[in-house]
Amino acid sequence: MVWLILVMVGFVGATIGSLMGLGGGIVVVPSLLLLASLSLLEITPQIAVGSSLVIMIVTGISATIAYMKQKTVDYKSGLLFFCASGPGAVVGTWLNRGFDADSFQFVFGFFILFISFILFIRSHFTPKPYTKKRIERTYINKEGTSFTYGYHWLPALALSFIVGMLSGLFGIGGGSLMVPAMIILFHFPPHVAVATSMFLILLSAIVGSISHIALGNVEWLYIGALLPGAWFGGITGAAINRRLSSEKLVFVLRVVLIFIALRLIYEGYITV
Fold first, then answer.
1. Which residue, among 114, 119, 117, 148, has the nearest Cα to 132 in the 3D structure?
2. pLDDT tens per residue across span 230-246
3. Is 149 helix (H, G, I), strand (E, B) or coil?
4. CB count, 10 Å around CB of 130?
5. E strand or H helix at 140
6. How many angstroms separate the CA atoms of 200 and 75, rounded?
7. Which end of the chain has fewer CB atoms surrounding its CB within 10 Å, N or C?
8. Residue 7 has what DSSP assignment?
């Protein structure tokens, strides 16, 4: 029964992560901690984070391949952002060592609340009129409409470092911050922002996973159960992204994240 639950956790986390460019860890890590609190798994926050990052590699590969076929990945921007997110992931892994189970749940709960807030307000933000940037890109969608977007490299690298650090610290993709920033600040077309975010998450997850594996923070038995769902979830999320608006799913995700956050904060608070 537990293994079936893990397969479903991998699938749901990867589907949501691929659909919105989040990475899936925002679902996987709290789910693993919840199963541990119910005594269904024996797992520490460090193992939950490390295992989540390994799963995100699989999600990232399957989703990126699907987005490559749709020709919505901005490889040059993704590689530039990775120059900062990669080192950030290593820093986040180092910071993660200082958490015990209770303090991690408390801090992670507040972080998830912050992510929920970002998801609530992102639809109310509209990008300012585009002005010429130092680095510019052009994207032509399947209808033949051309979009010009761009950014300055310094703020882009600073944001990428923060995203990478959060990935290594909490085992999440960081796309919940990166996707809105790319759309609002850098004027990325939404589909390009999500696809490029998944490409960046893939690269950052590889670096973060290597760091956590070196520290022994990976439970391969659990990963074996999560992997099948994560692979098909990554493909499913990319397919849904192409065909449907994600607003209804975003609304459900907001509610679920708030519930998860409040539970983590409560459990962390009563034992701190």
1. 148
2. 889 888 888 887 776 54
3. strand
4. 13
5. strand 135-140
6. 9
7. N
8. H
